[in-house]
Design brief:
alpha/beta; 16% strand; 369 residues; six-stranded mixed beta sheet; five-stranded mixed beta sheet; single chain; globular
């Protein structure tokens, strides 16, 4: 309604008409019998929270299927109401951390190693981990003509997505446990660690530029469809076969300014994981539809059917495994012993989980006080 019309209307109202309007207003605020209907109407119309937008970062990987499906199905946007979700995709964690530090994104799905690096480099001032998303979904795949056993990796060229990313750290740690030597920065040594964008890795494998890769899904299964063989599933290296591969981070600035938006986003993530686990075939198709929208090409059935079962979708950030991965980065020479106290703030997530009747999750002693 134009301002002039509103002014005229206000001036024409008599005391007799003001009183009923006031009573109606009180009812709409929750004091009348129609309060619940009014609340539903506001929700349906998309009530805006304290921020106009929330800028989200994630990877076009199946290990980020909570983001893929939540975005594709509108489950994240539904909980955000009138606050617009604005997504951006990244190849690997370090570049996403740069975007968070540059205030280009507010919330992100990301692996543990970049989360640790981002927290340490800003001396604990810029990010918090606020939830889990996925476990597993990482494999070492190799050219079976060149590599038949794990010992055959010595002297070979193996790709990881990016220096210092979660798979890079895991592979360097595995190499160290074999007693082999590799310079973490250059990747040169008993095994050549070749940092290669996931989009390029299948072509690098096909050309013979690499002999294998330690990579997340769906890149691992893409390589298998091209003739590679799974030599190791990283889940087999962890207790209970569980380790955090994807968690949810937020900038502390955004968390402080917009706690309602963060809580709404986490509610959407929890509902997305619930939907994924209840509808695995539909969720798989939804993730693939989003990947097609992002890249212009869907995954073949052979690839996604092989990749999907190796990933577990969970709200639990599996905090104890984050500490282990920090220790791996220290051993690899990529990180000095970090102080991780305060890296987690799981209070908003536990509030959402409690309201949903789900068990709360723990921060392994690394939460904010």
């Amino acid at each position: 309604m134009p301002a002039t019309t509103r002014t005229t209307l206000r001036r024409s109202l008599t005391a007799a008409t003001v009183l009923p309007l006031l009573i109606g207003a009180l009812a709409s605020c929750g004091y009348g019998s129609d309060a619940k209907n009014d609340e539903k109407k506001v929700a349906a119309e998309g009530a805006k929270l304290s921020a106009d937008t929330v800028r989200l970062g994630y990877f076009p990987n199946l290990t980020h299927a909570t983001a893929l499906v939540g975005d594709q199905e509108g489950l994240l946007q539904k909980e955000l109401g009138g606050t617009k979700l604005v997504p951006t995709t990244f190849n690997a964690g370090p570049s996403e951390i740069e975007a968070l530090n540059a205030d280009s994104i507010d919330i992100g799905f990301i692996g543990p190693s970049p989360s640790i690096n981002g927290y340490v480099k800003t001396k604990g001032s810029n990010l918090r981990i606020i939830g889990g998303s996925a476990s597993g979904g990482v494999k070492l795949v190799v050219n079976p003509a060149k590599i038949k056993t794990l010992d055959d990796l010595k002297g070979k060229k193996i790709a990881t997505p990016q220096l210092g990313n979660t798979q890079d750290v895991a592979f360097l740690n595995w190499i160290s446990e074999k007693g082999w030597k590799v310079d973490a920065q250059s990747g040169k040594g008993d095994v050549s660690v070749v940092r290669t964008d996931n989009k390029v890795t299948p072509n690098a494998y096909a050309s013979g530029a690499i002999d294998g890769a330690w990579v997340p899904e769906p890149t691992a299964s893409k390589l298998v469809s091209d003739g590679a063989k799974v030599l190791l599933d990283e889940s087999d290296l962890w207790p209970d076969k569980k380790f955090v591969i994807t968690n949810i981070i937020v900038s502390q600035k955004f968390l402080k300014a917009h706690p309602d938006v963060v809580e709404a986003f986490l509610r959407g993530a929890v509902k997305t994981n619930e939907w994924i686990n209840a509808n695995p075939d539909k969720a798989k198709a939804s993730a693939n539809a989003k990947l097609k929208a992002l890249s212009g090409k869907a995954l073949g059935a052979k690839v996604i059917d092989a990749a999907w079962p190796s990933i577990q979708f969970t709200n639990d950030p599996l905090a104890a495994t984050l500490q282990s991965q920090a220790d791996h980065a220290v051993k690899a020479g990529l990180l000095k012993q970090p102080e991780l106290a305060g890296i987690y703030d799981l209070k908003p997530l536990n509030k959402v989980l409690k309201a949903a009747g789900q068990p709360e999750v723990a921060d392994a002693g690394l939460g904010v006080k």
